[in-house]
Design the sequence.
């Protein structure tokens, strides 16, 4: 609730810190819930380091869900786009590259290194993981369920294509 309120009433920097702390607190809570009778645990990026460490101690297999590209790919892409389009330099993009983001990315690298398996949803995500040095044998690719996509050419009168994002 605090995160939702901060997103509506406060600035992005505060919202990001609240979100990050809630992820870390959740990770600690889940780690404390693990017991030796559990066979496996499914974790999610950002909120997994302590859970994975505790799972290792207890002999529990850990599955780590990586829903998007590896952070090194994203950082390089952002830097290129910011150099081409300086108007994109706003608090949201700066939050992805600041010292707190670097700390978070280092934490994610530890999660990726320590987990037993990584679940990702696409060949693209899998490729960015292997390019970042993740062992291919750890990666399980499970695509989201959706029908085949049929590509159509951009509007011939304008040369533009419209994309729709229907996410969060």
Sequence:
């Amino acid at each position: 609730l605090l995160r939702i309120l901060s997103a509506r009433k406060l600035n992005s920097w505060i919202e990001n810190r609240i979100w990050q702390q809630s992820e870390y607190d959740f990770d600690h809570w889940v780690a404390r819930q693990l017991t030796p009778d559990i066979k496996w645990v499914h974790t999610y990026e950002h909120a997994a380091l302590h859970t994975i460490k505790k799972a290792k101690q207890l002999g529990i297999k850990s599955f780590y869900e990586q829903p998007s590209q590896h952070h090194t790919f994203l950082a390089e892409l952002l830097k290129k786009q910011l150099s081409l389009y300086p108007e994109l330099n706003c608090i949201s993009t700066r939050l992805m590259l600041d010292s707190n983001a670097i700390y978070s990315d280092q934490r994610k690298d530890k999660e990726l290194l320590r987990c037993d398996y990584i679940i990702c949803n696409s060949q693209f995500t899998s490729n960015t993981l292997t390019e970042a040095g993740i062992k291919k044998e750890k990666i399980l690719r499970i695509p989201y369920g959706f029908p085949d996509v049929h590509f159509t050419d951009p509007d011939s009168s304008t040369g533009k294509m419209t994309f729709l994002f229907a996410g969060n």
The longest helix spans residues 12-33. DSSP finds seven helices and four strands in the chain. The chain has a mean pLDDT of 87. The longest strand covers residues 61-66.
